[in-house]
């Protein structure tokens, strides 16, 4: 067929006719006015109780962080303008032994050096019991006497030394002594469990059950790692075994612990540098911020100016809790990991996410795991096995904790008060209240109760001690005297 033939022309005519028909069928688009674009429809508010899960408040969290940072910076500048630069890190050299009147007399250091004596006395008593040199009942009585003396002698020593020991020095003595006391309790308790299990296994062997050999390990309920050689009682009663437990970052005695194969010296160097930096920051914040702030509250309390006291309480809540957070980071994240690395201690978990606790009871289970494990293992569960109810066991645990919190405060300031004790005992009703808030209004409000208790409770407790200390030793004023007694500058 040649180009331009009749058939091709007919096809073109059909296409043209079809296109024309389609153009005739298309209707013009309707006219749209801006009024046709509706702005409103039925919708609920963006933030309601029904859609809180789908709403992100991260921006407000950033805002609160900025406001807190600015408020803290403002308070720090106000402190600097009012009191000047008060940081003197060299004074902390005298923090353990302050203003000694006799050259070469260091009572706090002597009290610290005496602590290992009580530990090895406990080891000697245990060896005597294991070798059946003394009856078990008499040995346990000797343990009680040894531990009571260990608890009491720092109090007498600090009281008799007077100004030769600063508040910080006395606190260090009481803190280390309390730690060693809990370790000794755990050691004695674990050895008693081992003997009790050996007796039961011997009885079972006589009755034809088992072979009579004890496989008791110090984990007492938790298996030992496969690469760890198990130690059985009384093979654990050695100086090396007890010495390792004394320096290990735990309060619960076990005959064997999970251990790292070697020390990572690079990690040790990093943690040591962090400890130096964070420790310096902690000491500087106490000197520059806390001591002047708390001393300024003592006068209004003595004059019964309670509105001024309330205003200053809210003001010092920021520096108090910032120093507390630095202390937490220094102790649990830097110091504990450093000691774990040096001792090759494989369990590096010393805290959980306490900042997300939905109530105060959860907070106390997460904030300090070594103490929590000790209280559960050596106080709460033994009382439950003895037939006591959960409520009685919990009350006993908090009362015991309150005694030791007071032990860390009253002897160093040489004034016996009960504020720290009452604060710990009050955690039981506060915990029940926060649990009720969590059930009634949700986890977020329960966590708010936790933070409110921490933020207000800590400065309030410290104010009570500062007020009594100022009135007893320095009068309503006495900023310099209080600072010297805390830091320990020689006179």
Automatic annotation (TrEMBL):
It is found in: Endoplasmic reticulum membrane. Keywords: Acyltransferase, Endoplasmic reticulum, Membrane, Transferase, Transmembrane, Transmembrane helix. GO terms for cellular component: endoplasmic reticulum membrane. The keyword DNA-binding does not apply. GO terms for molecular function: diacylglycerol O-acyltransferase activity. The chain crosses the membrane at residues 59-77, 109-131, 151-174, 268-290, 322-339, 445-466. Pfam families: MBOAT. InterPro entries: MBOAT_fam (IPR004299), Oat_ACAT_DAG_ARE (IPR014371). Residues 1-36 are annotated as: Disordered. Pathway: Lipid metabolism. This is O-acyltransferase.
């Amino acid at each position: 067929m040649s180009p331009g033939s009749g058939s091709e022309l007919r096809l073109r005519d059909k296409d043209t006719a079809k296109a024309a028909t389609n153009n005739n069928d298309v209707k013009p688009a309707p006219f749209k006015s801006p009024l046709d674009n509706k702005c409103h429809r039925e919708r609920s508010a963006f933030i309601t109780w029904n859609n809180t899960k789908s709403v992100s408040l991260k921006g407000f969290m950033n805002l609160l962080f900025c406001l807190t940072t600015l408020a803290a910076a403002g308070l720090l500048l106000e402190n600097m303008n009012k009191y000047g630069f008060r940081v003197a890190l060299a004074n902390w050299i005298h923090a353990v032994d302050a203003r000694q009147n006799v050259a070469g007399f260091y009572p706090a250091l002597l009290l610290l050096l005496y602590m290992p004596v009580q530990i090895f006395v406990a080891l000697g008593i245990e060896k005597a019991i294991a070798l059946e040199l003394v009856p078990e009942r008499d040995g346990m009585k000797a343990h009680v006497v040894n531990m009571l003396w260990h608890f009491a002698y720092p109090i007498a020593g600090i009281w008799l030394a007077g100004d030769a020991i600063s508040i910080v020095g006395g606190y260090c003595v009481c803190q280390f002594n309390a730690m060693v006391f809990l370790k000794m309790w755990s050691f004695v308790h674990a050895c008693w469990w081992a003997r009790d299990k050996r007796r039961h296994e011997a009885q079972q062997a006589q009755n034809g059950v088992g072979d009579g050999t004890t496989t008791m390990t110090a984990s007492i309920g938790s298996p030992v790692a496969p690469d760890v050689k198990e130690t059985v009682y009384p093979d654990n009663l050695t100086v090396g075994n007890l010495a390792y437990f004394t320096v290990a970052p735990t309060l619960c005695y076990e005959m064997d612990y999970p251990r790292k194969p070697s020390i990572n010296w690079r990690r040790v160097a990093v943690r040591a540098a962090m400890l130096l930096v964070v420790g310096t920051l902690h000491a500087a914040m106490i000197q520059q911020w806390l001591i002047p702030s708390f001393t300024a509250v003592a006068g209004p309390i003595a004059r019964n100016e309670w509105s001024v006291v309330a205003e200053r309480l809210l003001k010092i809540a920021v520096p108090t809790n910032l120093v507390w957070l630095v202390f937490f980071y220094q102790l649990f994240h830097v110091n504990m990991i450093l000691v774990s690395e040096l001792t090759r201690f494989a369990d590096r978990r010393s805290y959980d996410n306490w900042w997300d606790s939905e109530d105060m009871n959860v907070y106390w289970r997460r904030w300090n795991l070594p103490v929590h494990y000790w209280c559960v293992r050596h106080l709460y569960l033994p009382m439950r096995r003895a037939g006591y109810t959960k409520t009685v066991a919990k009350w006993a645990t908090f009362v015991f904790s309150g005694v030791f919190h007071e032990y860390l405060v009253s002897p160093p300031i040489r004034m016996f008060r009960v504020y720290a004790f009452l604060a710990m005992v009050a955690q039981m009703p506060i915990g029940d209240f926060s649990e009720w808030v969590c059930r009634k209004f949700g986890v977020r409000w329960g966590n708010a109760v936790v933070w409110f208790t921490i933020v207000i409770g800590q400065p309030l407790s410290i104010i009570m001690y500062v007020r009594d200390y100022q009135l007893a030793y320095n009068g309503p004023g006495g900023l310099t005297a209080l600072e010297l007694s805390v830091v320990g500058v020689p006179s």
